[in-house]
Every structure is written in C-alpha cells, then in structure tokens.
Amino acid sequence: MLRAAAIAALLALVAAKEHYDLDGDGVVGIDEFAVVSFAEQGLSKGEIGEIVKVADRTADGILARDELQQAKSALERIAKEKGSEWIKDNDSNHDGHLSKEEFQKAVMKKVGLGHKDIADMWKMADKNRDSSISYNEAPMALYLIRTKSILEANKMLEKFDSDHNSRLSEDEAVLMADIAFDVGTEEALDAFERVARNEVEIGSSLMEGLLETMRESAIDNVEERIREVDSDGDGIVSFNELRKRFRKKKSSLLKKLFRKCDVNRDNVLDGPEWVTLTAEVAMLKKRKTKHDKVIHVHPHTSGGFRGAARDEEEFERRRKKREAEEKKEIEEEIIKMSAWDGLLPVREEPKEKEPEIALKNRVDPKFARFSELVVEDE
Predict the structure, then answer these.
(1) Is the pTM for the entire model greater than 0.85?
(2) The most confident of 17-21, 161-165, 203-207, by mean pLDDT
(3) Which of 6, 158, 301, 344 has the most Cβ atoms closer than 10 angstroms to its Cβ?
C-alpha cells in the first residue's frame, strides 16, 4: 500500500515537472514556475516571487525535484488561503460557502461583468454542481475573475490613455473615475496614489487594482447616484427610469445594456449592477477598430439587412471570430503582466550541453517567448 502511494506521488511529481517545463529542456526554472503559477493561480507576482526564493535553496535558478514539490505545495496552500478569505468576506449568511447570489455580488465587487459572463464563470467554478462555491472551488473562481479583470484593465487603459503611451497618468485616472464610475476627483486621486505608490503613471499591471478600488468606491456611494435617477424612490433603477436618464441613447441599445447588467434577472438594477452599467455606457464611445467598421446585424432582425453581415452563416462567423480574439486578448494580457524583474533571483546561464530533442508541439505557444516579455512591475 505504501509502495503504491509512493509510486503515485512520484508520477504526480513527474507530471508537475512536465507541466512547468515550458521550454522542454528537462528542468524547471524559477521563471517558468512563476509564469505558469501566475497564469493559473492568479496570485500576485510578489507572492509567487517569495515562494520560489524560499524553495530554490541552492539559489541556482532551477527547481530540483524536492524544491519543485515544496514550491508547488506552498503555491496551493496560499491559493487556498486566499480562496478561503474570499469566501468568508462574501458569505453573507455565514454557511461556509457562496450561493449563486453571493457569488454574483462577489464578482461584481472585483470586475464589471454582465449576466452571461458571470453565469459562465459560475458553471466553471461550481465543479461538483451542488449550486454553491466551496473552499476547494474558490481558487478556480478567483482565477476566472482574474482573467476577466486583466481584459477589463486592458480595455480601460486603451480607452483612457489619451496620450497613447500605454500608461495611465493621474489626470487620465481622474477622467476615467468620473466617466466610467461616477467617482469624484478626491476619491479618484486617493485610489490612484494607493495603487501607484509614488509613481506618476501606472501600466497595465496596476490597472486591475485601480479599477477594483474605484469600483468599491462607486458601490459604496451608489445610493446617492441612484437617487438622481430613481424617480419612484424605491432604491433601484427600472428600465423606464434608465431611459429617462439616457434620453439620447437608442431604446434598443439601452434594452440590450439593461438586460446585460441585470445579473440576477429581477428586471431592475441594484447598486453593483448600476455601477457596471455606468462603466458599459462609458465604453460605448470607444476607439474605432476593424470590428466597428462593420454593422453587425442578426439575420432574424426585422427589416432589411445592412453592412457585411447579410446571412446567418456570416453572422455566426463574425461572432465566433470576435469571441476567439477576446480569448486571445486575455491570454496575451496574462503574459504581458508576468514580468518578474526584481522579484526573482538572477538565473545563471547553464553550461553548454548536448541539445535535447523536444517533443513536437510540447511548448504552449502563448508561453514560448515569456522570458523576453517586458512590462511594468507591480
């Protein structure tokens, strides 16, 4: 029995080594471990940096078998601790897990998503299909939230980066806070200073924290904002009240936005849902892209067809293409934000040795050039 357990543990370790060995050279470097861990677990770069510094006892930049096991165990432990903390912070009825409603509210605190995105995340996170998120499922939920946060941060940076230098200045942050979150200048500056830490501008790696901070501030003060729209004084926003607020917007567009942001499908918008809608409206006037040049019309829409989408096949092709490009954006942003300068020890160049033949298609293309990536440090 003990021998079988030892064999199973050995096989698991061999599989882990192959999982982290991105370049297929037979060893796991600390940078390889860091990149894969950041992408899959969603821990901060500082947390992962501390893990590999402790695990790499020989300080040679390579994780031997026992060092890899130590790093992997530490990684899983920290991920579970963060997941447990997240569960406790959002478990309003204190039953030890998150219901669907609690999950929805927890997600909207961190990232502005609509009904479909949150529903998809729920299905992926609730692995055992018991209609709740347990402590064991929390790390996966946080990873899914992290990937969406990266994409949102990238889009917000692209929109409000007025000087096109791929960084957000203090003035640009104030403008973003006003337009996208209806947050005042003082609160915006306070959020920027906490995230920027004496820097005059921030890059994509710090945008996540800034957006989450501004969203929290917007949710905390949303009652005052809703009162400006809430004509019947019930503390929530109906579609008719929304239409009065945005008179210049087309009714069909407002219906689409209302449906998207009504996450719990109760036909009204509460505080977090209203904050999400505000950000969605702010993103309407975005830069022109190749997709904006085509009017996408569903073939079942009444009236004549316009633009290039003239039949159902063309419509489906364009929809799938947009979904694929969005997925690719998420993957690229994960890699762009995986910069480890100053957090990991310098890895010495290995001595020359006979080249090994790597298995075909062993390296995931999205990680193939991770060592050459340069982005902002946290």
Answers:
(1) no
(2) 161-165
(3) 344
CA-based nearest residue to 18, from 9, 8, 27, 30: 27
Residue 318 lies in a domain: yes
Domain that holds residue 75: 1-90+312-378
**List of residues 6+ apart from 374 with CB closer than 8 A:** 339
State the Cα–Cα distance between residues 193 and 306, nearest whole angstrom.
47
Dist CA 45 CA 40 (whole Å): 12
Q: Where are the beta strands (DSSP E) in 149-232?
A: 168-169, 201-202
More confident residue, 86 or 326: 86
Altogether, the residues listed in the chain come to a count of 378
Instruction: Establish if 378 belongs to a structural domain.
Output: yes
Q: Which DSSP string corresponds to 40-67? A: HH---HHHHHHHHHHH-TT-SSEE-HHH
With respect to residue 44, please indicate whether it lies within any of the assigned structural domains. Answer: yes
Residues of the chain with pLDDT > 90, as a percent, come to 42
In a domain, 14, yes or no: yes
Mean pLDDT calculated for residue range 227-246: 91
